[in-house]
Description:
Residues 82-359 form the Polysaccharide pyruvyl transferase domain. The protein has 438 residues and is an alpha/beta fold.
Amino acid sequence: MTTHSTTSTNARPSARGTRLVVAGAPLDNDNRGVEALGTSVVAHLASAASVDSVSVLGDGWGVSADSSWPGDARVDRLGVRNSRRWHRRESWARIRVDRALGGLGNPVVARLGAADAVLDISGGDSFTDLYGPRRLATICAPKEAAVRSGRPLVLLPQTFGPFTTAEGRRRAEGLVRHSALAYARDAWSHEQLLDLAGPSADATRLREGVDVAFALPAREPAASVVEQLDSLTGEVVVGVNVSGLLREESAVARFGLAGPYLATMTSLVRELVRAGAVVVLVSHVHGVGRSESDDTAHGAVLDALDAVERTRVHRLSPLLRAAELKWCIGRLDWFAGSRMHATIAALSSQVPAFGYAYSDKTRGVFGTCAVAEDVVDARAVAGQEAVEQALASFARRDATREVLRRRVPDVVAQARGQLDDVLGAVSSWRDGSAGTVA
C-alpha cells in the first residue's frame, strides 16, 4: 500500500479547499444503481465545507459545469472513454499520451494532476474480470491514471473480484497495493481485499465499509407519480424488480442459474396478487432498445398474467432517477428484486426486502443490515421453491421491519461517516503530514 497517514475529519485544511476527482460512477447513467452511487458520493462531497471542487468522470464528451448540487463546491462533469478515437481528448489512450507530453491542455490530465485524491468506486461491483478484458481495462483506467499522475488513489466501498485470470488478478493486486485507502462494502468482499493486498499490507488502510448508496437522499418525483402511489392507499403495496439482465433463457447458462428466471419472477408476482397485495413493478436499469432493460422484463411479466391479475399490477415509469425511485420504494410495505441497488433503496428506507441474487454480493450487503436470511441465491434455487422463500420473507415483513428500524440508522450513518473519514485523510495528505505517493 502507498504510504499515507490518516487523521480525523477535524484535520486542519490548508488555504484552498480540497480538489477531488471521482471515477467509476457516471451520473448520467441508465443503471440507477451506478447513478445512486455517484449521486451519494458527489452530494456528500459537494456539501462538505472543506471541498473546493469535484470533477466527476463520466461517459460523455468534453467538460460541463453542474450547478445542481448542495454546498459551495464547484462540480464539473468530464467525459472519458475507453475509445480507439485517439484524436479525442476523452480517450484514455490520448490522455496517457498527453500526460507523457506535459498535458497539452487536456482537461482530464489537468484535473488529475491538480487533484488532492482520486476517489474510485468501480460501479460498485465491476472491479472484476468476469466481464472480459475490455471492461476490466475501462474500470482500471482511472485508477492507473491516478497512479501515473502521482495522486493518492482511494478505492471507495465496492466489491473486489472475483478474478478468474492471472492477468486480471495481477492488475488488481497492483492497484490495491498502490492505493492510499481501500474500502470493501461488506465482510465477504473485505476478505477478498485483504487477499489482493497481501500479508505485508497495512491492514489499517484496508477497511470494511458499507455501500455508499445507503446514504442516497430520496427526492419526491413528479406529482403524477405521487398521485399514482397515493391511489393505492389502504392496500398492501409491494414492489418487485425483475432484472432484464437475467430474463433471457441464455442467462441460465451464462450465470449458472438454477432455472428460468423470468418464469420464477412471474410466478412470484402472481402469488403476491393471490395473497391480496398490489404489485408495483420498479425498473432500475433502463435504456431504449437495451437488452438488459428491466422495463422490457416487466412487459414480459405483464404479458404472462391474465386480465384480472393485471388489474392488481402497476408499473412505475422507468425514466425516474435513482433518488426518485428511492422515494417511491420508501412508500412500499415490502420489496423484492434482483438489482441489488433497488433492494438497497428499500433497506435504507427501512422497507423489508427480499433479494433474489445471482452473485455473492447481495448477501453481504443484506448482512450489513442483519437480514441476510432474506436473500436467496438464484444459482441454487428457482421456480416454486424460490417463490415460497420469497413469500416467507413477505410473511415476516413486520418482524424484518423492526430489525431494520434498529439497524439501518447506524448503517446510513456509517455510509456518510466513511466519506468524512476519506475527506479527513485527504486533508492530512494535502497538509503535508504524510509521505508522497509511490
